[in-house]
Write a structure and sequence with these properties.
- Helix content is 17%, strand content 39%.
- The protein is α/β, with parallel strands linked by helices.
- The strands form 2 sheets. The protein has a 4-stranded mixed sheet with strand order 1-4-3-2, covered by helices on one side. It has a 4-stranded mixed sheet with strand order 5-8-7-6, covered by helices on one side.
- Strand 3 (52-59) and strand 4 form a beta hairpin.
- The longest helix has 12 residues, at 17-28.
């Protein structure tokens, strides 16, 4: 059996990748690293010139990829949750509150029985987020 290491990067299909990426970088701190549009392709399809083919961003120190969905409509679903773990409660609260703006809080950010803060929300774009804090170091 081979042991392989993989780097996980979330790829989000969007109705408006630029606006959604701007929301995440503002909510979590970060920046859009690059944007390629369909108009940059050699044989650009008419009407898609401004649609995002590939967008790379960093938010809360995590790399994400995004694109505009052009082949099928976006359907909100609950099969994928983005989980962000923060070192401090202050950072967790700030991220949770920012992402919840215009969205829906499913479970408020609060102390969980396992010893960390934990909360669930759906942002205004239909993406589900789990926000938590690092577990405190066990005392000897």
């Amino acid at each position: 059996m081979l042991n392989k290491l993989a780097k996980h990067t979330t790829y989000i299909f969007s109705e408006d990748a630029k606006a959604q990426a701007e929301f995440y970088t503002n909510a979590l701190g970060g920046e859009i690293l690059s944007i390629m549009t369909y108009g940059q392709l050699p044989d650009a399809q008419k009407g898609l010139e401004d649609k995002v083919l590939h967008l790379s961003l960093v938010a809360a120190g995590v790399n994400f990829f995004m694109c505009d969905s052009i082949h099928e409509p976006i359907r909100k679903g609950n099969s994928i949750n983005q989980c962000l773990e923060f070192a401090t409660e202050t950072e967790a609260h700030e991220a949770f509150n920012n992402l919840a703006e215009g969205g829906f809080i499913k479970d408020p950010l609060k102390p969980a029985f396992w010893g960390t803060l934990f909360g669930l929300l759906e942002d205004k774009f239909g993406v589900f987020w789990m926000i938590t804090t690092e577990a405190a170091a066990e005392q000897a």
